[in-house]
Write a structure and sequence with these properties.
70% helix; single chain; 177 residues
Length: 177
């Protein structure tokens, strides 16, 4: 069984992953309401991905006979000043998640909980990708600020919809739905 401090922190991260999913769904809805279907689709996919991350963490706790405690999450931000603000929020959110994932990894190491440390390695790699994606998207959004449909074309070209699970990803509770 994982160290109790790790279990507590991972349960908190599960809530944070569900909150991130909730925020991405709100961003997707914001874009869909503004007839920006490519950005909407991109953020709907991000919402599912964050939900699956939470379920991977839940599955790890279940597999190690640790208790899963689903915490409450706050309502997401729904109003944005322009079409770039949601992307800026997404990057800030990913940076915060990276910090928390690093702290979880460090906690597992501090507790000599090597199985949990190994479990967290995939999430560290994933956060590098997530931050790079949002950072690049924000850079392009800022560059084409006055031509939002150019951003739509960029997302359609660079981030086509894809299905399936992420390579090397831990198993999600209930399967990656």
């Amino acid at each position: 069984m994982p160290a109790q401090r790790f279990v507590t922190a991972l349960n908190e991260q599960i809530a944070a992953e569900f909150a991130a999913s909730h925020q991405y769904a709100a961003i997707a809805i914001h874009y869909e309401a503004r007839t920006m279907p490519r950005l909407a689709g991109f953020f709907y996919a991000q919402a599912v991905e964050e939900r699956n991350h939470a379920m991977m963490m839940a599955k790890y706790l279940l597999d190690t006979d640790a208790e899963v405690q689903l915490g409450a999450i706050d309502a997401p931000q729904r109003e944005f000043e322009d079409h770039i603000a949601p992307i800026r929020l997404a990057l800030e959110q990913e940076r915060a998640v990276s910090t928390r994932i690093s702290e979880l990894f460090a906690l597992a190491r501090e507790e000599a909980d090597y199985l949990s440390e190994q479990f967290m390695q995939w999430f560290l790699k994933e956060q590098v990708e997530e931050e790079a994606t949002m950072s690049g998207l924000l850079e392009v959004a800022e560059r084409v600020r006055d031509l939002p449909m150019t951003l739509e074309e960029f997302v359609a070209r660079e981030y086509p919809p894809h299905g399936g699970s992420e390579a090397g990803a831990p198993e999600a509770a209930g399967g990656a739905l």
